[in-house]
Please model this.
Amino acid sequence: MAIHPREQRIILKYADEPGYTPDIDCYVRHGGYEMLKKAVGMDKQTICDEVKNSQLRGRGGAGFPAGVKWSFVDRKSGKPVYMVCNCDESEPGTFKDRQIVHKDPHQLIEGIMISCFATDCAKAFIYIREEMPEGAKILEQAIKEAKEKNFVGDDILGSGYSCEIVVHRGAAAYICGEETGLIESLEGKRANPRIKPPYFPAALGLYMCPTIVNNVETLCNVKHILEMGAEEYAKIGRPNNTGTRIWCVSGGVKRPGYYEVAGITLGELVYDICGGPKEGRTIKAIIPGGSSMKILKNGERFKGKDRDGNEYDWGIEDIPLDYDGIAAAGSMSGSGGMMVLDDSVEIPVALANLMAFYSHESCGQCTPCREGSLWLKKITTRMVHGEARPEDVDLLRSVADQIEGRTICAFGFAVAWPVQSYLDKFEDEFREFAQRHSHLGGDRTAAKELACNH
Amino acid sequence: MEEKDNLITVNIDGHDLQVPAGTNMVDAAAILRKEIPHYCYHPKLSIAGNCRMCLVELGMPGRDRATGEPMLNEDGSPKIMWMPGPAIACGTKAAPGMHIKTDSPKALESREAITEFLLINHPLDCPICDQAGECALQEFSSKHGRGYSRFIEEKNVKPKRTRLGPRVTLDDERCVLCSRCVRFCDEIVNDSVLGFTDRGSYSTLTCFPGKELANNYSLNTVDICPVGALTSTDFRFKMRVWFLTEINHIDFETSVGANTVVSAREGKIYRVTPRRNDEVNDTWMTDSGRELYKTVEAEDRLTACSVAGDETAATEAIVKASEILQKGKTAIVGSGQCSVEEQFALKALAKSLDAVSVNLVARYGEDDGILMSVDRNPNVRGALMTGLIDTLPEERLEDLGSKIDSGEVTIVLSVKEDLTEAGLSEEQLSKVDIVYLGTHRNATSEKADVVLAGLTQFEKSGTVINQQFRIQKFNRVVPGPRGCIEDLHALSTIAANFSDEKFPSTVGSIWKQLAGENRQFSELSFQSLSDQGQVLDSSAFEYLPFREGKSLHFEPKRESVAAE
Model:
């Protein structure tokens, strides 16, 4: 894929370069593992401080500052500390980690090893989703190569520090992307997320030991922070939103794909880089950060005051494309999986599709999510099957409200937010849809599509 | 409120309460008689936090971020920072200054939401469900439910009658997936056989492939199941629970003395379930202990007294027994299955008969570290405490055998014990006259000159003393068969025939005498003894090498382990 001139590629700098291969020689030729060599000569705390000062935020979804996360690790327990790289990338619309794993695996391994060294981890695990079988093979091969060169394994580069990396394949469950669900799965159990308190990974994680769980992209960034220095790194993007982010754009745009950018607006990404809507179409709405995030409606005005007290009044295209910008617009940047819905999409059908996904992926552990998600699916499916009732619109909202905030993990939000936000912003369309499909024999196309997909 | 040692103050719905730090907030609220409804929480299992029924509002005293100083309201009271979302009370441990609201609109809304969710795929088959009447879902639906349904979709379909094991049948549609049964098997019995298959609302409780729920504690899963999903195959569809009278009892299976509740209707027992005693059996009991009620109506039950094989009235049998015993040279075989009161009466009888010997028959088995102890008699300690015996019993009555052989003993009074099983030969038995007081036919009752048909533990009241020297009482559940005589009454009447004194013949009256004669019992009475029992001073018996292993709340003394 050609690199767009507006992109600012750091993580994916070489990934799409012609002739760049995932083997270690190619990586080393491009300056690979130099930072690991530097790191093992550094004071561990200095590296941690650098990461903290860089203001690097997690790229997996919640956007928690990585350096702060590292500092939470319970060092008093005397137990080994584990590093888990979350490569479950299961949020619909997200395909960035896949690029790194497939095209530049050694960058991830270097990032992991620097992070492990800095946080003194005893062992690292890469939890990779079942749907990336090729990625798992590539990582296995890369780890083998790195071990041969002593970048991984015993006494790394003569530093006295030893650390192995284990690649663990999931079994295709969305919930394994939730860090405590992932840990359960890694332990060989059913991936039921744990209750917090008390099972915060930093204290009681993998095998009840302190554990750091970081996303693939986050760990790769560590290498570049070390390379640039925290201060330089923090200059990329806006304060508190430092570094580049890889956005995965799908749906109704001319040039869908992944783009590594920093400091631009949503409009610049969607219109300038992705080419705007397809011919003859207009953009109806954008889901900014993976399918669970709240939808942004085109034509809506996003108003408020930022942290410094400055008022803002944005159209959808003006929203700064970063954590705080999208949060100010009432949604979240999540995992960077941006879905663009054009005017060909019926919002209730999109919701039915999503509910089919989330009810299928609910782990079933806690009541509101387990029962609520399937209920939402049953209502929305019935609606698109031509059996909608006028009261369904209010019922959908009520069910979503009953789920939100009452579950063990964030999945409850993931299932409630789309319903709430779609209804907030497209209530008229839902009511009209319910009216139009309120008798059998209505438009069955959407229903058939759904049936094919699920 | 002033803070006492080890106690911290929490605030529940505006009421201050002092509890030890770390107390579970569901339990803390219960102290104030506030019920926080829950399904998955169980005081003896790990916290799962999955049912979400116990959601409450939670707040902590605020601290200024910059200074770390406590934040105060205008009136000087600590400012409480309430969490934006509800928190599970079961996963919340009491911390200083913690505030919770259990009955705020937010908390009540949560309960209503959870109740609705639990009911949408529930079959609502209460009219034919065994749990009805003692079902948490039923109770909370009535208390916290909407009262109407908004669910018009088709309900999920799941397996209706899965055999999980020899004693447990599962109705998956009723299951609320609280995982209590799974945790019980994992944590208490260490027999991981249960788990969930499928995901989301289709999650289904099941046994692992090739496994079954067959351990001796499997029926506890039925007890702790908050709904009618796990059912006892024995009790299933037998009786509506609200017709049952529940009587506190003690398990006679072993020296552990698990506390139980026996449920009966119109003279018939339907089930035995555990009763909570945190010092003895927590909330558990064995499956095998639950089966004991079946001895009441067993085919080999003695339902009438007899003399020389002919049925007689109890009074005549007692007269005949007294005649035989009067002849002298009597050996008494008592039992660790008898109550303290019976053992006391038997001791009095032994004294007035000037018995040649008094023996008990020991029963030992393999212990399981939980509620099955090595000593399979429920009340050997009672025989020691009453002075009926002063050494530990043997499994075989070899000493008695040689006394019979030598002619030293010519009459044997056996209470509840089968002499053949205890090692006496047919030849030895034919040499002596036998008076047998027992509940079931056996080789001894067949040979006995007089058979006094006694009562099972379910048909009488009394006390037993367990391995911890804890005296515990049990109460009569059902009346015995008409031809039977209460053991204590039989023993007292015979004793009275040999003594000038009037000997008490009821549990209540015997306690007066017991308390008078034995310092250990002086402060006690049957009436005042609490349902949790009372530990007696066992120092007088420390020298005895009791054969016991570890059980749930019992550690054998080192000396006795060494003696093994």
User: Anything to note?
Assistant: Chain B touches chain A through 37 residues (CB under 8 Å). The longest helix of chain B spans residues 105-120.
